[in-house]
Input
Amino acid sequence: MCEQVTYKLVVSYDGTNYNGWQTQADGPTVQAVIESLLDKVFKEKVNLRYPSRTDSGVHAFGQVVSFTCRSEFSAERMLKILNSQLPSDITIKSSEIVSNDFDAKKASKKRYSYHISTTPTRSPFYINRVWWIKYKMDIGVLKEALAIFVGEKDFRAFMGAGSDAKTTIRNIYSITVLEQNDEFKIVFEGNGFLKHMIRNIVGTAVEAAIGRYDVEDVKKMLESKDRRTAGITAPAYALYLEEIYYDE
Output
């Protein structure tokens, strides 16, 4: 008889064709595609545990999931089975058999990145990948505005509507801006992020960088705890879930 086994998978996906990660009634999701395949493989209902939901259009390099079921498949065999049948825009990067106590939901830190281009003309290769901004940005102001959000704060003013979060307090450990010519990658590391939080922060910081707000205005937006005072929501397609961390 097969033993109870817990698998830990690291998943990479292009979110363009999906209504986000989490299963829902309206349209395809990445979670639903993977669970449907697992149901067929194990001939029973398999429920994925995961630490982070991504919105419609958001991509992932390293989403982590776990599930427990009766199985005789090695981690390597599981990797081959899934990748041979998943659509080309979803890939299992790694498969590992872990302790049955492991729960992918209990992450200690998450890293996301947001990608921006300010090239004079828009590249066709950045469609659904990078936010192209046609206005000149003051990168010093961008960094100043982003620095306001580092630390443990109440991010209510930067939470999207319809969130079911029990608290709006989150701790952003760092925000780093990596520059290469006219390309910018903003890296966020924190203990968790509210719905649309990163996109709202980026949208507001970019608006400050092109002169629509002062840095002091951004500070007041955060302190207001009122979403109506804050800036725009940056597009989903330029956001990437990069990595999920767990305590040893």
